[in-house]
Amino acid sequence: MNVLFFSFNAVMPIILIICLGYIIKRTGLLGESFFSQANKFVFNAALPIYLFYSVYNIDALSAINWRLITAACALVIFSALLAGVFFVFYTKDSGKRAVLIQCAFRSNFAIIGLPLARAIGGDEALATAAVISAVGIPVFNVLAVIVLSVYSYDNKKGSISPLGIVKSICKNPLIIGVVSALVCVWLRGFVPFTIKEDLPFLYKAIENVGLMASPLALVVQGGKFELNAVKELARDITLGVAWRLVITPALCLSLIMAAANMGLLPLGSSDFPALIAFYGSPVAVSSAIMAESMNCHGRLAGQLVIWCNVASIFTVFGIIVVFRGLGLV
Q1: DSSP string, 13-63
Q2: What is the pLDDT of the chain when averaged over all its residues?
């Protein structure tokens, strides 16, 4: 029961902030122009700065368990490919296809996953999760750019050059934020200078803008939420939520467990709680912002953010109960 209360308390603030955005929009306190401009600000500034801040606070690249990271990220890619095959046959709407594939593999690891890992496995699990985030977040973003570029409504001919995809990846603000942080972390080994210690005023500004990113993104999603779209997109929403919260976690965690049992992937006591958070968290808030910015099905992406968060209250509880019963958490 404590796990259910934790899941509720972890996700409910997100739902309440989304509701605030919905109320602000429906009461006319702020108009459509605010939500449109705020959407651009979140995607181009606030979220990249937040990701920079999250990755920058990793102690060192040498702390990364590359064997675990490689396995975790390989399974993310595998789940993306599997979802891609499924949704190519499921719908001919390329924008929907992009959003559903993205939802299947991209979890809200930075905002929900890290505190979730700590709640399940303590500070050791949080440390492992932070290390996973250094590589996992870039993988999420690169895959998202590829998927959204290939199936964007802008790409009417259904094909895109590899050079075009590379350009999209290099220009993506979220990826720029993560890569910049990784470069800074790498430079610590050679330069006796850090933003946190030597430029504390800049570090504090980065922290404050980063902390703004998630709440503002959620307010924007609430403002864009349409109740009449739920019935229209019900089947798509159900499938997207099922992939994100049930199919992908079950598949990836089962394969990780099988590899560990065969001795192919040694896992410490803090590793599995971090992996549960990595695969089992609801879809990333930034997924909807990115989908709309890259001209995919923004309405469906926003609905998936909301309903994945609601459903995750129960699915996270279920995952933890199952793996606690197996003695893994």
Answers
A1: HHHHHHHHHHHHHHTTSS-HHHHHHHHHHIIIIIHHHHHHHHHHTSS-GGG
A2: 82
**CB burial readout 289-324, b (16+ within 10 A) else e:** bbbbbbebbbbbbbbbbbbbbebbbebbbbbbeebe
Q: What fold does the segment set 2-325 form as a domain? A: Na+/H+ antiporter like fold (1.20.1530)
| Nearest of 138, 235, 218, 124 to residue 182 by alpha carbon | 138
DSSP tag of 295: T
Cα 252 → chain centroid:
16
Contact assessment for residue 300 and residue 232, using Cβ atoms and an 8 Å cutoff:
no
> What's 65's DSSP letter?
-
How far is residue 107's CA from residue 241's CA, in Å, rounded to a whole number? 11
Angstrom distances, CA of residue 115 to CA of 3, 124, 126, 210, 297: 13, 12, 7, 16, 30
The residues that bridge with 283 in the sheet, in sequence order, are: 107
- pTM (2 decimals)? 0.79
Q: How confident is the model at residue 250 (pLDDT cuts 50, 70, 90)?
A: very high
Domain locations along the chain? 2-325
pLDDT at site 247: 95
